[in-house]
């Protein structure tokens, strides 16, 4: 088959929209062309680099008519790194892109015409992350190149806490001094495969996990001595991941130094967080998002609220201050233990946490507690279809859905039967990236 668009041929196109990945979309000879780092309204000279059957990928050769929203990216790794793909846009354009992304997904995939409110901006657009997960390879320590697992060696990341650069330097110096080999993903050999860092934005406490393919961590005493000198270092772990997988963190953690957890506060509630526990990565923005989720959960003054995929109990404990009973469900054992201890530390006694899959536990828990409102905060892949089926049978009056992916949100809304979407409020949890978080309030349609 002959492609309509010719590889390595230049075309003049106008950008009229965006993909969900943040690429600009235009047309050449009637065919869609996806162009990274392009902004709606721009006129570009584009080189076709990958023609396919119904569309093509292009590369900007010349910006003929630039957008008023175009800015120079501040990060020196922007052109290679696969993270901050929107850094060529000013912040107002980033927010509008994300609103459009949510609106389009809900309409196209969910059959939902509910208007989407303006995106709530992040209080900070740099240095906002409280978690870093850095793969290590022969190429260095850093992040993956766009659409690949090639590691880009970095010294710092502008959306990470400043301590990340210090930890990278310590680990790099340690590996060089003691000749510790990096992990090779293809050959499945080497030792150091990653660094995982958490920091308490409101407390300053820092956790570092060194991830290895091997059970042993050579010269660990020397590494711990160097890491422990970093100001506010609170916890140092050795994490073991022996699986041949692109998942960074393994399930086995050994505490090498300091505390088992770090502390963080959200909405006046104190939380203790362990390495494998889920915790939102933008603390200041999370406070706004969770306040909105708690506000939606209070609609019609419910007696009992279920918080499914509850993690360390963040939303549960914030919501519990305004309702009679909260029941949290989480699949990660350490997170459930953290949640229980967090409730105890904060003197919140109207919450119960259960370990297990939400889809498996919901039917029985619903018989025992009869929820008026269910909060859903699933991972990026969305809700398990069995959970959706159970919700359709349990029929709570309201569902509050906290989503980190518009596509799976739209799919789940479509599969929930007998519910009307009342409000959709997006939050920019991840400035400069394609990602957007939403809080959605759904109400059961009266029979």
Give a short synopsis of this structure.
The protein is an alpha/beta fold and 447 residues long. The protein contains 9 helices and 22 strands.
Keywords for this entry:
447 residues, OB fold (Dihydrolipoamide Acetyltransferase, E2P), Rossmann fold, seven-stranded mixed sheet, 30% strand, globular
Task: Explain how this protein is built.
The structure is a single chain. The chain is of the alpha/beta class and 447 residues long. The chain has three domains: 10-65, OB fold (Dihydrolipoamide Acetyltransferase, E2P) (Beta Barrel), CATH 2.40.50; 94-123 and 267-271 and 279-444, 3-Layer(aba) Sandwich (Rossmann fold); 131-263, Beta Barrel (OB fold (Dihydrolipoamide Acetyltransferase, E2P)). Helices cover 25% and strands 30% of the residues. It contains nine helices and 22 strands. The protein has helices at residues 91-110, 163-178, 220-228, 283-297, 314-319, 333-345, 358-369, 385-394, 406-415, and strands at 10-14, 17-18, 24-28, 31-35, 43-51, 55-65, 131-137, 140-144, 151-153, 192-199, 206-212, 233-240, 252-258, 262-266, 269-273, 304-308, 325-330, 351-355, 373-376, 398-403, 419-427, 437-444. A seven-stranded mixed beta sheet has the order 9-8-7-10-11-12-13, covered by helices on one side. The protein has a seven-stranded mixed beta sheet with strand order 18-17-16-19-20-22-21, sandwiched between helices. Strands 1-5-6-4-3-2 form a six-stranded mixed beta sheet, with no helix packed on it. Helix 1 (91-110) packs parallel to helix 9 (406-415), helix 2 packs antiparallel against helix 3 and helix 7 runs parallel beside helix 8. It is globular. It starts with 9 loop residues before the first strand and ends with a strand. The mean pLDDT is 95.
């Amino acid at each position: 088959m002959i492609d309509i668009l010719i590889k390595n041929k230049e075309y003049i196109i106008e950008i009229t929209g965006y993909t969900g990945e943040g690429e600009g979309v235009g047309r050449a000879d009637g065919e869609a062309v996806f162009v990274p780092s392009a902004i709606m309204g721009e006129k570009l000279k584009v080189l076709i680099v990958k023609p396919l059957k119904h569309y093509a990928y292009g590369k900007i050769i010349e910006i003929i008519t630039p957008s008023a929203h175009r800015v120079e990216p501040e990060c020196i790794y922007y052109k290679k790194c696969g993270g901050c793909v929107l850094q060529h846009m000013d912040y107002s354009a980033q927010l509008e892109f994300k609103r459009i992304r949510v609106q389009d997904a809900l309409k196209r995939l969910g059959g939902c015409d509910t208007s989407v409110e303006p995106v709530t901006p992040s209080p900070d657009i740099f240095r906002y992350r409280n978690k870093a997960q850095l793969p290590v390879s022969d190429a260095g320590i850093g992040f993956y190149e766009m659409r690949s697992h090639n590691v880009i060696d970095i010294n710092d990341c502008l959306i990470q806490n400043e301590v990340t650069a210090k930890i990278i330097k310590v680990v790099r110096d340690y590996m060089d001094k003691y000749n510790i080999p990096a992990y090779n993903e293809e050959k499945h050999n080497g030792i150091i495969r990653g660094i995982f860092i958490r920091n308490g934005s409101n407390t300053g406490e820092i956790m570092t996990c060194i991830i290895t393919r091997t059970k042993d961590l050579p010269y660990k005493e020397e590494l711990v001595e160097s890491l422990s000198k970093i100001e506010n270092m609170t916890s140092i772990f050795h994490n073991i991941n022996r699986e041949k997988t692109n998942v960074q963190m393994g399930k086995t953690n050994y505490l090498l130094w300091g505390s088992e957890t770090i502390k963080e506060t959200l909405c006046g509630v104190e939380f203790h967080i362990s390495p494998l526990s889920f915790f939102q990565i933008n603390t200041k923005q999370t406070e706004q998002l969770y306040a909105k989720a708690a506000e939606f959960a209070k609609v019609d003054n419910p007696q009992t609220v279920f918080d499914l995929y509850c993690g360390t109990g963040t939303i549960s404990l914030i919501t519990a201050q305004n309702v009679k009973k909260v029941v949290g469900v989480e699949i990660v054992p350490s997170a459930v233990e953290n949640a229980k201890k967090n409730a105890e530390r904060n003197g919140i006694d109207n919450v119960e946490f259960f370990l297990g899959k939400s889809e498996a536990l919901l039917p029985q828990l619903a018989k025992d507690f009869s929820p008026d409102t269910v909060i859903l905060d699933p991972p990026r892949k969305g809700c398990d279809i069995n959970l959706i089926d159970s919700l359709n049978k349990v029929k709570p009056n309201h569902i509050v859905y906290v989503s980190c992916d518009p596509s799976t949100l739209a799919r789940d809304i479509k599969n929930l039967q007998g519910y009307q979407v009342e409000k959709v409020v997006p939050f920019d949890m991840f400035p400069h990236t394609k990602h957007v978080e939403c809080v959605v309030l759904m109400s059961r349609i009266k029979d």
